[in-house]
Amino acid sequence: MATIDCFIPCNHAADAENAVKQFDACPLVSRICFLSDTFFEAGDKADVMVVDSLTGTRLIQSIAAAAVSEFVMVVTRDTAVELGQFALDRMVRIAQDTGAAMVYSDYYKMAGDVRTAYPVNDYQQGSLRDDFNFGSVWVLNTELFKKAAGSFTDEYKFAGWYDLRLALSRLGELVHINELLYSEVDTDSRKSGEKQFDYVDPRNRAVQVEMEQVCTAHLKAIGGWLAPVFEDMSPEGSDFPVEASVIIPVRNRVKTIGDAIRSVLRQQTRFSFNLIIIDNYSTDGTTELIAQAAAGDTRILHLIPERTDLGIGGCWNEGVFHPSCGKFAVQLDSDDVYSSETTLQKMVDAFYEQRCAMVVGSYTMTDFAMNEIPPGLIDHREWTPDNGRNNALRINGLGAPRAFYTPVLRSVKVPNTSYGEDYALGLAISRRYRIGRVYDSLYLCRRWDDNSDASLDVVKLNAHNAYKDKIRTIELQARMNMNKLQ
Questions:
Q1: Is 374 helix (H, G, I), strand (E, B) or coil?
Q2: Cβ density class 44-55: b for 16+ within 10 Å, e for less
Q3: Is residue 328 a contact partner of residue 241, using CB atoms and an 8 Å limit?
Q4: What pLDDT, in 10s, does the model give residues 139-179?
Q5: Is the dihedral of CA 382, 211, 219, 476 positive or negative?
Q6: Are 212 and 394 in contact (CB under 8 A)?
Q7: Domain layout of the chain by residue ranges
Q8: Looking at domain 4-189, what is its CATH homologous superfamily?
């Protein structure tokens, strides 16, 4: 019979006693070890390992050194866990049957007495984001675990688990069990829209630096890293009706579209520009409001597409391929606004100054009334000239506002989706071309209840994340193939 060593965060004897009763009941368990910041008496059926961090390299290496059984179970978060019926038996059996380097499963979230099913995604090659949710219970093949931990060349304070699972993915499969095998206490009850900007919060900068270093090393190890060498980009010339077009896809945003339009029309530029609004069959008065604005200003082009199967990306294509589109296509969401009258000029200037095919600015988070809210300025400083396009495979977004050199955008084309289409573009364009950056706040991103990502249930959140993981997989494979040809 296979055996398993269990390593569980715990700082209190009372909690340890409950955990021992639970895990000791499984005949597969040969050892229980609590991970604690201070020593306490855990009884004769468990050990205590004093650790200085639950996220660092030292912890991973200490567990690997202490493991003696065929498998290791780790609880990676400091949360109470309740195993389901024969949960460890199931995870170990599947680990044996598949030869996986690691198995993980769906689980329940516990909030008080309420138990809610929480499925997670299948792991794929492009699941490179450091916040990929494996749940808190992992079962590892000990031999491969030790090999992975032994391969570490750098010591990290925050990125230990991320470093481990990328190393394991190079040694074997990370297998998802589509079964609810345990429950964990929900320690973060925020809505999805409140969590999604954690990775750009300045308070988390030290964490992000480590995560980038780990991801970069992984990309180099698998042949997916790109050196900072770009195709030449010359935006001069070209025959376009105007220098720049602001593109706004919209459906049912009568509360905000007027603000967005006004923020465009007040732009002060040294060049001609227009505003192309793609109205995707609005039913709430948005259409009439746009028509009224267009009647009063010839710079506004109000398009209602013939197709009825368009997402946000498809609407973008309608605007970009229209004969009135300018040399540069500049993004503005229908519920956001430009922060000043110089935004458009700064974005266009960046194309000429930085010789790039795409420009990403910076934005400020606000409430509906456009009062600044935490984390405030989002400037995506992690996008460095040398490593930005590699680090882009780890993060879930590239920033705003975004602008594109229209000939390149017409060549790549925008995926006809309503989520992640901008991210897919950024990855594809950065494979060949330099992406320029403007670090001034150019844009106010309004957070309100009608945001499409304000409060997603777990099924929709998983679908969004799986799509971005797939985009990353495709892009990573393209980069690996490109490197092989060089």
A1: strand
A2: eebebeebeebb
A3: no
A4: 999 999 999 999 999 999 999 999 999 999 999 999 999 99
A5: negative
A6: yes
A7: 4-189, 244-485
A8: Spore Coat Polysaccharide Biosynthesis Protein SpsA; Chain A (3.90.550.10)
pLDDT digits (tens, 9 = 90+) for 384-418: 889 999 999 999 888 999 999 999 999 999 999 99
Beta bridge partners of 249: 278
At 71 the three-state DSSP class reads: strand
* 3 state SS of 83: strand
Q: What b/e readout covers 350-384, taking b as 16+ CB neighbours within 10 angstroms?
A: bbeebebbbbbbbbbbbeeeeeeeeeeebbbebbe
- CATH 3.90.550.10 fits domain 244-485: yes
Residue with tokens 């993060």: 395
Residues 6+ apart with CB under 8 A from 38: 11, 50
**pLDDT of residue 136 exceeding 70:** yes
Question: Strand 328-331 vs strand 244-250: parallel, antiparallel, or unpaired?
Answer: parallel
Would you call 443 helix, strand, or coil by DSSP? Answer: strand
Cβ 370 vs Cβ 300: under 8 Å: no
Lowest-pLDDT choice from 21-30, 377-386, 425-434: 377-386
The count of other CB atoms within 10 Å of the CB of residue 91 is 28
- The pLDDT > 70 percentage for the chain reads 95
Amino acid 444 reads L
The answer to whether 409 touches 320, Cβ cutoff 8 Å, is yes
Instruction: Identify which of 236, 248, 237 has the alpha carbon closest to the alpha carbon of residue 299.
Output: 248
Contact between 80 and 86 under an 8 Å Cβ cutoff? The reply is no
Give the mean pLDDT of the chain.
93
Give the single-character DSSP code of 186.
-
| Cα 245 → chain centroid | 28
CA–CA gap between residue 182 and residue 194 (Å, rounded): 26
63 touches 152 (CB < 8 A): no
Q: What residue type is assigned to position 367 of the chain?
A: D
What does the pLDDT read at residue 234?
A: 85
pLDDT digits (tens, 9 = 90+) for 262-272: 999 999 999 99
Is the pTM for the entire model greater than 0.70?
Answer: yes
Is residue 308 within 8 A of residue 233, CB to CB? The reply is no
Q: Which helix (H) or strand (E) holds 401?
A: none
Of the given ranges (212-226, 365-379, 468-482), which has the lowest mean pLDDT? 365-379
Contact 200, 152 (CB under 8 A): no
Yes or no: say if 58 and 33 are a contact pair by the CB < 8 Å rule.
no
Least confidently predicted of 45-54, 443-452, 469-478:
443-452
**Pair of tokens at residue 79:** 């949360």
User: Same CATH topology for 4-189 and 244-485?
Assistant: yes
